[in-house]
Amino acid sequence: MTNTGTLSDLVSKREYSEPEKAVLSHFFTNLDRNIYCPTTHMPFPVWTFLVGQYSRSPLTMRDRFLEVFDQMKKKSEKGEWPKNEVVTIEDAADAIQKSNSHVLDYFFKTAEDFLGKWGVAYGHNSLKDADKSRVAVEGITQLVTNFIEMPDPELGDYQEKSTRYITFGKENVVVPPKLGASRFAQAIKDNNNALMDSYVQLTPVVKDWLAKNIVNRADFKSDAAFNGTLNAKAFDIMRYWLPQGLTTSLGATWPTRVLESHVSQMLTHPLEEMNIIGKAIHEECVKISPGLLKHVQPNAYFGETIPAMYSLAEKMLGAEREPYHRGDRNAKRARLVSHTPDFENLLLAGILYEFADGRSWENVQKQVSSFNDEQRDVVFKEYLSRRGSHDLMLRGTKLGRFLFEYMVDNGAWRDVKRQRVGTMLKQDITAALGFSYPEYVEDNQGLGDVKANYEQSMDRTTALYNDVAKEFPRDASYLPAMGHLGLNAYEIHARQGSYVVELRTPEGGHYSYKSLFRDTYREIANALPRFGKYINAVLEDKTIGRQTAEERAAKKAADALEADKKRAQQ
C-alpha cells in the first residue's frame, strides 16, 4: 500500500528545487501525493488550462505548471516571446516569499469560521452550491473513474488522459490489494502484461497499415495534420486492448455540496481503491474549504444498501444473462426501450406554452392535439429552423423522455459517461458479455494477425475474469479490457437527445461511439420524425476521422507561432 492516496506510487518522479517547492506549495495543497487540490491562490482560468492538459500531456498537473516557466524561457530564446515578459521560477518564488500574506490569512480564517457556523452548523447548505472544489486525481485506475465521474446529482466537470494522444505501458497497470493477495495474483499480472505487450507491439503494425491503406499523406495540407490523424486513428484501434487496471489522471471540479455527498459514498464503496481515493480527496479538499467539508462521514445508507441490492438482484432476477457477443457485424448497440406516450403532442404543447398568454396547459394541449400535418410542421420549423450550429434548442424541447439501453464497449463507455444531462444507470464492468472489434479489424484481412491477437486476448481475459468473479465479483472488474462489452441505461429528454447526437456523431469522434449515437439518432428520428429532421446528425464520414480537426489545429498552431514571432520582434 502506498502513501500517495491511490494504489499507485507517486506519478511524478521529478526532484524539485527549492524555488520550485516554494511555487508549488503556494498553488497546490501538497507535493508528495497523487491527489491534491489547487489552493485559493490558483485562478480559475489557470486551473482550466491545467485541467485541459491531461488529455494530451503525460505530465502531472504540478509538473505541467512548472513546465510553463521553462516553455516561456525557451520561446524567448527562440525569439517567439518578448524577453521582458518572461517570468522565471526564481522570480515567482521570490514574489511569493515577499508577499505580505498575514492579512489575507487572517481574513480567510475568519471567513472559514463564519461558514463553519452558518454554513454547516445551522444547515445553510445552499452556501455550498456557491463554492467549487477542484481536485487533481492522478495514478487512479480506469475502473474507478466510472464512479468518480458519476456523482448524484450529475454535476461536475472532468478532463482525463486521452487514449488517443497518450501512450501507455506495463508500468501504468496496477492490481488492487485484494486481488494481489489472492491465488489469482500471478495470472492477473501475466494477463495484464500480455494485453500491454500486444498494445505496444501491434501499434506500429496498425499505424503502418493505416498509412498504406487509409490515411493518405497526399490528402493532407501538412505533416502535422497527417501525423496527428494517423496517430489518433492507430490509438483509437489499439485502446481496445487496454485493461481496466490501467492508471490515468483526472482533473475534477464539483460544486462543494455535490462533493460532500459524493465523497461520503466513496468512503463506503465496495472497491478498496475507491475508499482510499475518497479519503485522500477529502483530506485535500478540507484544506481549502474546512468549514464546508469538515463533517463528511462514510455514508451508511449507501454502504449497506449497495451490497444488499447485489444480493437481492441475484436472488430475484434469475440466472439468465445476455449471450456472449463476439463481434460487431450487423449488431445494434442502441436500443430504444421506451419513450413518452403521445410524445409529439407533448413537445408541441411545450413549445407553444410559453407564448400562450394566459391559456392553461390543458387548453394548449387540446388545441395542438387537433393540429393537422401542415400546422405541426410550421410549429417545429418556426421554433427550430433558425438554430445555429452551437445553439441549444429552446427549453420547450426538454419535455418528455427517451429510455435507451446501450450495449457498448468499455472504451466507448469511457466517453459516453460524460453526458451528464439525463440519468445513466451502469452495470458493473464485465468481460462476460463478449467484445466488440476495433474499426477495420473485424472484416479487413490486411489486419488478420491483429484480429487473431485481439480475439485471443479477449477470450483469454474473459476466461480469467469468469474464474476471478466467482470469488471476487466486484474486484474482478479490474480485469476486462476496453474492448469488452457492458450494459447501461440512459434516459434523456428530447433536447438532450439532439445535443448528444450532434456532439458524438461527427466524423472526428471515435468509431465506436459514433456508431452508437448514429443508431440513437435513427431511433429518435423514427419516434419523432418532425423533431428529428432538425437534429444535425452526421451519419457518414467524408474525411478520415480527425483530419478536419487536425488540419484546423495545425493551422492554428502555425498562426500562433507567427504572431508570437512578430510580437517578440516589436
Summarize the structure.
The chain is an alpha+beta fold and 570 residues long. The protein has helices at residues 18-27, 44-52, 61-77, 89-98, 102-121, 126-129, 142-148, 177-180, 185-213, 223-238, 256-266, 272-288, 290-293, 300-316, 343-353, 361-369, 373-384, 410-416, 448-471, 494-504, 511-527, 529-532, 547-569; strands spanning 35-36, 132-141, 157-160, 247-255, 325-326, 334-339, 402-409, 423-426, 434-435, 485-492. The chain has a domain at 18-161 and 247-308: 2-Layer Sandwich (Gyrase A, domain 2), CATH 3.30.1360.
Description:
With 570 residues, the chain is α+β, with helices and mostly antiparallel strands. It has a domain of 206 residues: Gyrase A, domain 2 (2-Layer Sandwich), CATH 3.30.1360. Helix content is 51%, strand content 10%.
